[in-house]
Each structure stands twice: as C-alpha cells, then as structure tokens.
Amino acid sequence: MADPQTVFSRPQTLVDRPWHFCPGCHHGIAHRLCAEVIAEMGLQERTVGVGSVGCGVFSYEYFNFDGIGPSHGRAPAVATGVKRVLPDHLVFTYQGDGDLAAIGTTEMVHTAVRGELITIIFINNTVYGMTGGQMAPTTLMGQVTTTSPFGRESQQAGYPVQVCEMLATQKGAAYIARAALFNPAQVNRAKKCIRKAFETQIQGLGFSLVEILAACPTNWGMSPLEACRHVETGMVPVFPLGEYKVPGGGQ
C-alpha cells in the first residue's frame, strides 16, 4: 500500500482552528472560498477584510490577514475609507442579509452608485441568524421566523429584497453575481465568482458583489441535508443564480 499523500490542505490565509458555526451552516464554506482565492492570488499581505455584525463578524477568528469590525450595516462605508487610503490593497466586506439589506442598505447602494473599488461578499440565508431567527429583508414569502410565526406575507412585510437585480442597474457596478453552496458543483462556481469579483477590484474596473445563497439549519429548523435541499428548491427560484453584470458586458 502506497504512503498516503496530502492532496488538499488548509490555505495559509486561514487560522488553524475549528469552526464555531452550527452544524450545516454554510459560513465556513464561504470563509474557506474567500481565503483560498486570496491565497491563490498572492494577496495575503495586501488584504483587509471588513466583517460586519452578524454571524460573519467572527471572521476575525479565522482569516489570517488584516481585518476590521465595523458598526452594524456600515461595512461598505468603512471598506470605502480603507480602500481610498490603501488603493493597492484588496478590500472586501463580509455581510449577511440582515446586515447588508436592512440597516446597511444605504451604504450598499451608494457604494455601488459611486463605483467604489471594493468587493462585497453577501451571505443570504433569508434570516437573522445570530440574534434569534427573526425575519430578514430576504425572508421568503410564507417563511416562518420568530417574528413571522404565521409566515411572511406581502401586505404586512412586503417582498424579498433582490440585491443583485437592484445593483446590476447601477453604472458604478462592474461585477454582480449570485452563487450558492448546496452541492460541490455550486461551491466550485461560487469560488470562480469570488475570484472574478476580486479581479474586478484589483483591475480597477468598479464595484463588485457576490451574493451567496447559504443554509441556516438551526434557525430554519431543518437538518443540514434538508437545508441544502431548501436552498436549491426554495431559494434559487426566488433568487436565480448567475452573473447579473460583468465588466464590459453590461447586464
């Protein structure tokens, strides 16, 4: 029998420690993808991550490069300041739907309008994960949460915010894409989208955002496998996957 060989290892951009995330949570996968791309691009020493309030705020426990913790929803504004002071750095925010698409809507939209050279990694799991499973701006119609016990309905709460569709209309936005993490093929595609977004920033082409549809089994009351299936069958029809805007190609 041949000696075992290492074919896959932790990138140097991740700290060697166990994840604290709930079983089946997709934040760990998203962290890994961001870290892998940064390592492969050789940007560890020139990267600043801005991990906003929510489950993603704990990114400073895992990313092995510089980071900042902003106030709730203000990550794009903080990232804008960092990028303007350090224009040769890769600067990205890591934000959930409750942070980005609620209290952070103004910062998100105007950062895109101005064409700021930052990247937003937007984790959409349709719920406030950290604070108790409340309804978020992206909560699906009929979805039960702790603040919509009978399911979201339009007369009371409106409709899910579709971030990619909205930002793709802005002239300052250069790359806008939506990916998911419910199977290996989609994980690989998400990584390619993250790389394109970071390359868009490094090349000075404009604002970039990658929305990642992710599972929150704990707050959904599902097993990890059920949650992955829900992302595919429940979320994707509402939030279609794809590249909504690419540099030089329009929508």
Task: Please tell me about this protein's structure.
The structure is a single chain. This protein has a single domain, classed as Thiamin diphosphate (ThDP)-binding fold, Pyr/PP domains (Rossmann fold). With 251 residues, it is an alpha/beta fold. The mean pLDDT is 94. It contains 9 helices and 9 strands. The strands form 2 sheets. A 7-stranded mixed beta sheet has the order 2-1-3-4-8-7-9, with helices on both faces. A two-stranded antiparallel ribbon has the order 5-6. The radius of gyration is 17 Å and the shape is globular. Helix 1 crosses helix 7.
Could you list some keywords that capture this structure?
251 residues, alpha/beta, seven-stranded mixed sheet, two-stranded antiparallel sheet, 9 helices, Rossmann fold
